[in-house]
Amino acid sequence: MSLNTLSGRFALLTGIFVLLAELLILLPSLANYRLDYLESRLERAQIASLAQLATDETLASDVESELLENAGVFNVVLRRNDVRQLVLSSPIPHPISATYDLRAQPFWTSARDALAQLLEPQNRVIRVIGAPVNQAGQLIEITMDTARLRTEMIDYGLRLLAISAAFSILTALLLNVAAQRLLLVPIRRVISHMTAYANAPEDARSIITPTARLSELNEAETALAAMQRTVTSALKQKERLAQLGQAVARISHDLRNILTTSQIFADRLETSEDPAVRRAAPKLVNSISRAVNLCETTLAFGKAKEPAPSLSRFNLASLVTEVTEAEALASDRVDGAGSIEFLTDVPAGLMIRADRDQLFRVLSNLVRNARQAIEATRQPGTIEIGAGEDESGWFIRVGDTGPGLPQKARDYLFQPFSGGSRKGGTGLGLAIAADLVRNHGGKLELLRSDSEGTQFCLTLPRELAGLSLREDGSDS
Questions:
Q1: Contact by Cβ (8 Å): 78, 85
Q2: Angle between helices 356-377 and 316-332 (to 10 degrees)
Q3: What is the helix (H) or strand (E) element at residue 189, kind and residue range?
Q4: CATH number of the domain at 306-471, out of 3.20.20.70, 3.30.565.10, 3.30.479.10, 2.60.120.380?
Q5: What's the gap between Cα 199 and its chain centre?
Q6: So what's the pLDDT on residue 304?
Q7: Which of 88, 94, 108, 217 is the most exposed place for a label (fewest CB within 10 A)?
């Protein structure tokens, strides 16, 4: 089990924490063991002294030495009836270094003395005072050395640590098994699902199904599944868009060639003897030119970006007139639709600087969407185009009296294939229009959309600093 794994580190930390807890228990345990040891020496000394007091004669020296050795002490002093009596005695090898009264010793004092006894390597002689058992006197006092006490305390501490280590290892193993079953197995399952999904993100079968019993892991699996579904859907949509882009590029390439040929024949209509044909020829040529330009732009879009605007100064009113006339003709060809009135409020002398063809596409998309929305109601309606200028730039407003955009269209406005406002629509029109306006450094935004109609506002700045644009030389 490696320490670089979660289970290895979990087991190591468990063992460390259990050992720390046992170390905190060790000092009180040693203090209690020392206290029990000293009290047992007092009891043995009391028994040995009672053997002496039970006889009227003085014990032989060898018997007295045997009693003291069995008790593990040098001297025994009893105090009875306020008389202090040396009952048993033997030579003391060293001077008495400390006195401990066990009759009223706080726990922390006992713990401190035990730690000092454990850390003192030299053998010393100490005096211990306690209360005799069974009320056999007022006090009992003994003298003893500390060598054996320290040895037994060390043995007891090592045994306690060994038992603690065994319990620590057992606890760590049990906790590790529990962690494996409750945490690591579900985590490895999530990792395996993520790996399988990374190998085939387009395959919906690799999306994880939340099955974890723990609420936190279940929430993580649920969030992962939602993210995988979103990514899979986005990848499929991008794949469809890529295929559509390739198809549109091929169609635009062939259509451009066809329109170029048509443009050549349309140029000859200007020499027609029919006055009506001669008047319609420029508009037809302009329409074909815009179609050719649109095909070329589509081919450029297939390379991931629109071409930079080719700036020129032109009269906005004439451009708006072209847009409304084209849409009016399209409206007249729709059977069963209510009549649509086109109103323009554009100053006749308003000159703006922009790419004329791209701005035509933007306004055509906005007006066409407005027209189709009104036609869908089978009721009469109005489309109004207004424009003006201020110190910062130019603005163009396009409004209608249609039914307003649905909520989904407002939520995904200007996103391709998401913001369509009518059934069967793709939403490409508004997305392309917003992109073209951004290329000018401007902004296309929705001012309002409700039951009384919809209004968009297009703004173009005068300052073009930092924009990559092409000037055609007509800005004069």
A1: yes
A2: 30
A3: helix 185-199
A4: 3.30.565.10
A5: 23
A6: 47
A7: 108
CB contact at 8 A, 373 and 402:
yes
* Alpha-carbon gap, residue 175 to 14, rounded angstroms: 8
**Cα-to-chain-centroid distance, residue 29:** 48
Q: What is the distance of C-alpha 1 from the center of its chain?
A: 29
CA distance 120 to 100: 16
Q: First vs last Cα of the chain: how many Å apart?
A: 79
How open is the CA angle 231-439-325, to the nearest 5 degrees? 105
Mean pLDDT, the chain, integer: 80
CA distance 306 to 326: 24
Strand order in the sheet with 470-471: 351-354, 310-315, 470-471
Asked whether the whole model's pTM tops 0.85, one would answer no
Residue type, 434: A
| SS3 (DSSP) at 384 | strand
For 29, the token pair is 């345990």
414: which 2 tokens? 């200007």
Query: What is the percent of the chain with per-residue pLDDT over 70, rounded to a whole number?
Result: 80
How far CA 465 is from CA of 300, 357, 367, 440, in Å, comes to 24, 22, 30, 11
CA distance 460 to 463: 9
Tokens of 455: 């209004």
- pLDDT per residue as tens digits for the range 26-39: 888 888 998 999 98
- What residue type is assigned to position 169 of the chain? I
pLDDT category at 221 given cuts 50, 70, 90 is confident
Give, in order, the Cα–Cα distances in Å from 142 to each of 59, 125, 167. 19, 10, 39
pLDDT band at 337 (very low <50, low <70, confident <90, very high): low
